[in-house]
Structures are given as structure tokens and as C-alpha cells.
Design brief:
With 485 residues, the protein is mainly alpha-helical. The protein has helices at residues 3-22, 29-46, 50-70, 76-103, 106-125, 132-168, 175-181, 183-204, 208-224, 227-231, 237-242, 250-280, 282-289, 295-322, 327-347, 349-354, 356-384, 388-420, 422-443, 452-465, 476-480.
Length: 485
């Protein structure tokens, strides 16, 4: 449909949605039923994001197990390649599948992400080779395949969950179910993977080879459990009405949205730049606190550390609901608290090493405050900053830039830790966190008071003013399609 037709359709649809919320036989029954379906749609949209946290947590413990099984053959270079293969594939998946979910559809992109995660997990679980080198290369390939799907989950799940929540919930009520569908599963993934490890390790006991294979196999069941529901998923009304599948005016898009894009991308970059090294160095922190610990003991302490991320996400939802803080205020406060705690740990690191339990607690607090702020709301502001037609693309690129920050952070923090000591890594991460607060204050808009429909109408009006002509919204043929294949 043309831009003018789309604007009229927006006005009619908005009125119909308002009436639908207000009208029901007893004044509330229809509304409750609608909310049930919408909450279900939101959770289905984001459920497989737990795969990201699970895959991160699995690799932490798998590195320990492979070191026991392969000994010196599992060199530092191989350990880095196995770990980074998923990180690199994440970037590719976020960018490509962010584009796909805008141009082809949210549902189609979901099917890609689910299949890639399942296939990659199976390849890792079944990795074989006539030599150690060949076995490890199968792991690298499998991690890359799964990483491509996990990366694509971010733009697909974020856009779908927010658009579905927006249809029946207002600007504030949509946030709690959205976080429950996005960051909460991610933060739960790491402790869940650690719990799974402890259970599987208790079953296999000293058979570490069977343990790590089982961990990867279980990783395939998380996305598999919701594959049917995603297959039957329908596009949101916002997507049906506002998608641009041909001749997307990317130059006009960047002309209008360059600042929020720079703000969200910068936020992701700095957050992941400190988050991923923080997760990687957790093992070295545990070595300081509990030297010569058994594999099981390391897993138990890893569970303790990772659980603080979940607490941070829960506190973020409580603060948003009851303290009525805005999205930007929560993100900025999380960055500032992370910076302050990092400077305290860096300044008192030698004293903290004499009290290992205190060092672990402060290290866990870093994970808590990061999830309290940017960890919980980076997806919120990334979906609320852009209109439906290009939401997945700009979200995916922003998240991909974040993963690039993670790779750069790992490369920077490692030599700093080796050559100048662990305390200086805390000073650097603290400075980057404060810079993150500045970037968010400068470039990230707080559109929490606006419906996504308003953003779409504003974008349509902008395209009309710029003289762009093209089809807006899915064609009738596209809307009648029920299955992808």
C-alpha cells in the first residue's frame, strides 16, 4: 500500500485496538484473554534466547573438562578458537538475520535461528575425529553454526517480542513481559547451564568426555522445545502494516536515525566490551579465591557468580515497576555503579586477595549492576528507538557491534591482565562503564512514553516528505501465508 493509505490504515487500526481493549461482555474478560495470548506470544518470541546464556555457560565448564580430557593438546590457541568461533558467528548472525527478519519476516528468521542452534549443538555433541586436531575443528565448526543462530535470536526475538507486547499493552506495562522474554532467559542461561553441568557430572562422574557431549546435546533441546510454536507463529499487526520488503531507503533511514543508532550501537559496544572479559576472567578470579579446586567445586562457585546476573535482572524490573525510573535512568545508573565498584575492586585488589570471599562477592556485584542497568534495558531501547520497517536491521547491527566490542575487549584485557596485573583490568572496565553512561545520555532516546505505532506513523510521514515511493506493509499474498516451507 502507499504511504497515504498506510497512514489512514494506522489511524483506523489504532482506534480499533483502543475499542478492543475497552469493549467486553463483562468489562474485563476479553481484555484478560487478549493479554494471555499476548503474553504467550511475547514469551514464545524470546524463549530461545536462553540458548545464548546456556551456550556461554556450557563453554566455561567445557573448557575445564576438555583441559582434563585432552591435556596439553587442548592448547591456549585452540581454547581461544573454540570460544571465539561462536562470538564471530554471533556477529554475522545478528547482522544477516536482523536484515532477514525485516525483509522476509520475523517468523522466517525465527525458523533459521532455531534450526542453526539445533544443528550446531548436535555437531558439537557428536564431534569426532581421527586426531585431536580434527575433533577440535569439528567443535569450532559446530560452535560457529550454533553461534550464527544464537546471534540471530537477538534482533528476531527482540523485535517480535516488543511488537507483540505493544499490541495489547501500554508503554509501561509492555516492559516487564518483554524483559521476561529477553534478558531474563539470557541471564538464566548461565546458571541453568551450570546446574545442568553439576547434574550431568554427577551422573557421568569421572567420564568427562561423556559429560561435555551431554551438555552440548541438551543445548539442542532448548530451541527444539519451542520450534513447533515458532512454526505456527503469525506476524504482528505492526509488521503486517509497516514492513518494507523492497527498495528500503537506507540512506534516508540513516539520515533520520543516525544519532539513536550511534547511541544504541555505542551502548552495546561498551557493555559487551566489559561484560565478556568479565565472564572470561571469572575463572581466574576463582583460581585466586580457591586454588587447586576440583572440577565440581569450580562449577559450584561458578553457579554462585552467575546467579547474581539473574538477581540484577529481577531488581531492574522491580525498580522500573515501583520506583518509576525511566529506561535511560536505569541504564545510566547501572553503568555508573559498575564503574564505581570496578574502581573500588581495582584500588583494593591486593587487600581483597587476602579475603577471597570478599573478592568473589564484589566480583559478583559487577554482574548484578550490569544486568540491573544496560543488561536488562539495552534490548528495550534498541527496539523502541526505530520504526518497524527497519527495527530488526538496526537492532541487529547494534548488537553485532556489541559483539565486536566483546572480541576487542577480550584481546585488550588479556595482555593487560598478563603484563600489568588483574587490578588494572578493573580500572579500565570502570572507565569504559562511565563512558557508556555518557554515550547513553547523549544518544539513546527514551521513547517509553510512545506507542510503536506512533514511530511507524512518524516514519511514514518522513518518507512522504522526502519523496520516497514504495510499498509499505505486507501484500495480501504474504499475509495469507501460514507456513514458511
Amino acid at each position: 500500500m502507499s504511504i497515504d493509505e498506510n497512514k489512514k490504515q494506522f489511524e483506523v487500526t489504532t482506534e480499533e485496538r483502543s475499542l478492543e481493549l475497552d469493549q467486553s461482555p463483562d468489562g474485563c474478560q476479553t481484555k484478560k484473554e487478549s493479554k494471555f495470548h499476548k503474553y504467550a506470544g511475547v514469551l514464545t518470541g524470546g524463549a530461545a534466547l536462553m540458548s545464548d546464556g546456556y551456550q556461554q555457560g556450557v563453554m566455561t565448564m567445557t573448557n575445564v573438562l576438555l583441559g582434563q580430557v585432552l591435556g596439553s593438546s587442548y592448547s591456549t590457541s585452540y581454547k581461544t578458537m573454540v570460544s571465539n568461533s561462536m562470538l564471530v558467528a554471533n556477529i554475522i548472525g545478528q547482522v544477516i538475520l536482523g536484515f532477514v527478519c525485516d525483509r522476509w519476516g520475523r517468523k522466517q528468521a525465527f525458523i533459521f535461528t532455531t534450526l542453526f542452534i539445533i544443528a550446531g549443538s548436535i555437531v558439537c555433541a557428536c564431534a569426532q575425529g581421527s586426531s585431536v586436531d580434527k575433533l577440535l575443528w569439528m567443535l569450532i565448526i559446530g560452535r560457529g553454526i550454533a553461534g550464527f543462530g544464537v546471534g540471530g535470536e537477538y534482533p528476531c526475538a527482540g523485535t517480535s517480542a516488543m511488537e507483540t507486547a505493544n499490541e495489547k499493552l501500554d508503554h509501561n506495562k509492555r516492559i516487564i513481559p518483554f524483559i521476561c522474554a529477553t534478558n531474563l532467559p539470557i541471564s538464566l542461561g548461565v546458571p541453568v547451564s551450570t546446574i545442568v553441568f553439576l547434574i550431568v557430572q554427577a551422573i557421568w562422574k569421572d567420564n568427562y568426555n561423556g559429560t561435555w557431549r551431554t551438555l552440548f546435546a541438551i543445548g539442542a533441546f532448548i530451541p527444539l522445545s519451542i520450534f513447533y510454536f515458532r512454526w505456527r507463529l503469525d506476524h504482528s499487526q505492526s509488521y503486517k502494516e509497516n514492513a518494507i520488503k523492497k527498495k528500503v531507503p537506507y540512506i534516508l533511514v540513516m539520515k533520520k536515525y543516525w544519532k539513536p543508532f550511534a547511541g544504541t550501537a555505542g551502548m552495546w559496544f561498551l557493555m559487551d566490551m566489559i561484560l565478556y572479559p568479565n565472564n572470561i576472567f571469572s575463572a581466574s578470579i576463582l583460581q585466586v579465591a580457591i586454588p587447586n579446586a576440583s572440577v565440581k567445586r569450580v562449577g559450584e562457585w561458578q553457579l554462585f557468580l552467575s546467579s547474581f546476573g539473574v538477581f540484577g535482572t529481577i531488581l531492574a524490573m522491580v525498580a522500573f515497576r515501583f520506583l518509576h525510573l525511566t529506561r535511560r535512568q536505569l541504564i545510566i545508573s547501572g553503568f555508573i555503579m559498575y564503574g564505581v565498584i570496578s574502581f573500588i575492586v581495582g584500588g583494593c585488589f591486593e587487600k581483597f586477595t587476602e579475603i577471597p570471599a570478599l573478592l568473589i562477592i564484589f566480583y559478583a556485584l559487577l554482574s548484578l549492576v550490569l544486568n540491573f542497568g544496560p543488561g536488562s534495558f539495552q534490548s528495550v531501547v534498541s527496539t523502541e528507538s526505530f520504526p518497524t520497517a527497519i527495527r530488526g536491521t538496526l537492532y541487529g547491527i547494534s548488537a553485532g557491534i556489541g559483539k565486536a566490542g566483546a572480541a576487542i575487549g577480550t584481546e585488550i584485557f588479556t595482555p593487560i591482565q598478563v603484563h600489568t596485573g588483574k587490578r588494572n583490568t578493573f580500572f579500565l572496565s570502570g572507565g569504559l562503564a562511565l563512558l557508556g553512561a555518557v554515550v547513553v545520555w547523549w544518544g539513546v532516546p527514551d521513547n517509553g512514553y510512545r506507542s510503536l505505532d506512533e514511530l511507524d506513523a512518524e516514519f511514514s510521514e518522513y518518507l512522504k516528505e522526502q519523496g520516497w515511493e514504495g510499498q509499505v506493509g505486507e501484500s495480501k499474498e504474504d499475509q495469507e501465508k501460514k507456513y514458511f516451507l
